[in-house]
Design goal:
The complex is a heterodimer of chains A (153) and B (412). Chain A has 153 residues and is an all-alpha fold. Chain A has helices spanning 3-28, 43-72, 81-113, 117-144. Chain A contains four helices and no strands. Classes of the chains: A mainly alpha (153), B alpha/beta (412).
Chain lengths: 153, 412
């Protein structure tokens, strides 16, 4: 078997195991409803863990808001009447996108302020699972794609 | 003097950056400048005679689904920069400029152990990697023919849904470019219109911009003497680029006599379907033909034998096809968008953009007047020889280098 395919199998297995382990320990095994606060953790340690996750989360939400805001404020005049008609509800959807991202950001910051477990766990899960998902998906593609390369001697 | 060029796409037959890199470095070398080039794929024709080339790999993953990746690309995806590229492209972000500039920065660190550079010349990348490069105390200039805001505006014109608009917004790295461009020592653009466009797009102060007319090979682009075909229009450009205003040209075609035909120098169906869709909507299938990609001698032949070159653009940072056609004594009908009036001057017919009726009238004016066509053709050739030859562009670029280096040294 080519070395790349072996790496593909390893990536798929490792990504799947890590993903399952993350979900199990973060959401199933851990009794988050019984102990939903990080109050017992030192403030410095809490923010050291939280800050990177908070920055990534707020960056993603800000990007969502920026996309919505840009669509809301596009000044380009469409040339074709049929496109003007089609674009009518796009401004409304963009407004909703802005609203949702602001609401999520406020909710997230509120959760951080109150040291909520879920406020950290949900974004951490999103980030981790997206990255592991990509590693997994590339691995699957490597395993299932037929090699077009000549045999490596 | 030793200059380091950075160009994230280098093929001289796909896009203006590659043509610019190839010809400008060649002419600068003739003026005594030692040239090193860091370039991404598609790689340029060999520059080895006058430059040292360092190639950076990029897998060009944008808009390709993972399952459609060829195997030789897939097995490289787990390397760090390729994986970053992969992740970002999955969110419809176009990361080529970001990752190219960062890879170029790390390569520069190695090169500086043995080489000394007086100036770094970035070609239209404006990536994050240019910021840490400033730490090495080398002045950096960048050539920007037009800001990407113009491409984005043109894409918005045809986006129908929120999803398409969101993808357009994520695609263009405008925030990065706005931050980076304002921290460079000088920006070179190819027209006076470019100064306004850069100011409008990135709030770039006009005093940080130098205008250097684009160059072209005036010896190669020359009328080949073959007889011209009457009533034949020529369009040269990327049919998927909405800035080209092709829909207005097709609208104008519906108002022109049936015997007027249009030849498009680009791929048509099945490779490229956008323009073909507009053609079939208007019933122009029998009057419009596609040549596909052509080599340069064929392009010169097409310029030399067509009646008129038409550019219906909504914006042009320069408008190379107009200059090439003029070099072949071919009259042009262009819009007044962007730098086209500066390129064409009084050697062609200029009409307002987004106005199919005005375009039709401009075309008819030339179609019906052979003497005017010949007069404009001769004037066009002279204008190109005087203004747009590569040696002239290289000489002016070198003058900008000297100015930038002098003012940089006076500051430190």
């Amino acid at each position: 078997m080519p070395r790349a395919k072996i790496y593909g199998y390893i990536a798929v297995i490792v990504a799947a195991l890590l993903g399952c382990a993350f979900v199990y320990y973060a959401f199933i095994h851990y009794d988050m409803y019984a102990s939903v606060h990080f109050d017992s953790i030192d403030t410095g340690a809490y923010w050291a863990v939280v800050l990177p996750i908070a920055l990534v989360t707020l960056f993603v939400l800000a990007t969502g808001f920026w996309v919505g805001y840009t669509i809301l404020t596009i000044k380009v005049a469409p040339p074709m009447p049929e496109i003007i008609e089609k674009k009518d509800n796009s401004k409304f959807k963009a407004f909703l996108l802005c609203l949702v991202t602001i609401a999520l950001a406020v909710w997230f910051v509120y959760g951080l302020y109150h040291h909520s477990y879920l406020a950290i766990a949900i974004p951490a899960a999103c980030i981790t699972l997206v990255i592991l998902g990509m590693v997994f998906w590339v691995g699957i593609a490597i395993i299932t794609t037929r090699s077009t390369l000549k045999n490596n001697k | 003097m030793r200059a380091l060029f950075l160009c994230y796409r280098g093929n001289p037959f796909c896009g203006g950056q590659g043509i610019y890199l190839y010809n400008l470095t060649k002419e600068l070398a003739k003026l005594g400048v030692a040239i090193d080039v860091i370039v991404g794929p598609p790689y340029p024709d060999p520059l080895d005679e006058w430059a040292t080339v360092y190639k950076l790999e990029n897998l060009n993953m944008w808009a390709i689904k993972t399952k459609h990746f060829p195997y030789e690309k897939l097995i490289k995806l787990y390397t760090p920069w390729h994986f970053v590229d992969y992740c970002l492209t999955r969110f419809h972000i176009f990361p080529e400029m970001e990752t190219f500039s960062m890879k170029a920065f790390f390569l520069l660190r190695k090169l500086l152990k043995t080489n000394h550079y007086d100036i770094i010349h970035d070609v239209q990348c404006l990536g994050w990697g240019l910021l840490p490069m400033k730490g090495y105390g080398i002045p950096i200039v960048s050539t920007v023919h037009h800001p990407l805001t113009k491409d984005r505006e043109a894409d918005f014109l045809v986006d129908n849904t929120v999803w398409e608009m969101a993808c357009t917004i994520l695609f263009y790295p405008l925030t990065m470019q706005r931050i980076v461009i304002n921290r460079l020592d000088r920006v070179i653009t190819s027209s006076k219109e470019g100064i306004n466009a850069l100011n409008e797009a990135f709030h770039l102060p006009p005093e940080k911009v130098s205008v250097v007319d684009n160059g072209m090979d005036v010896e190669f682009f020359r009328n080949n003497g073959n007889p011209r075909k009457e009533n034949t229009l020529l369009f040269v450009g990327n049919t998927e680029d909405h800035k080209k205003g092709l829909r207005y040209l097709f609208d104008a075609m519906t108002m022109l006599p049936e015997h007027v035909t249009l030849t498009i120098v680009d791929d048509g169906p099945p490779k490229r379907l956008t323009a073909w869709g507009w053609i079939t909507e208007r019933g122009l299938e029998k009057r419009v033909t596609f040549t596909g990609k052509v080599d340069l001698p064929t392009l010169v032949h097409l310029y030399s034998t067509s009646t008129i070159l038409v550019m219906a653009s909504l914006y042009e940072g320069f408008g190379l096809p107009a200059a090439e056609a003029m070099a072949c004594n071919t009259p042009v009908v262009v819009t007044s968008a962007g730098a086209l009036p500066e390129v064409v001057g009084d050697c062609g017919v200029i009409v307002p953009p987004k106005d199919a009726v005005a375009l039709k009238e401009g075309i008819l004016k030339l179609i019906n007047n052979k003497a005017l066509r010949e007069e404009l053709g001769k004037k066009g050739r002279k204008r190109v020889e005087d203004n747009f030859a590569w040696p002239v562009a290289a000489k002016n670029t070198l003058a900008v280098y000297h100015d930038v280096i002098q003012s940089y040294r006076s500051r430190i």
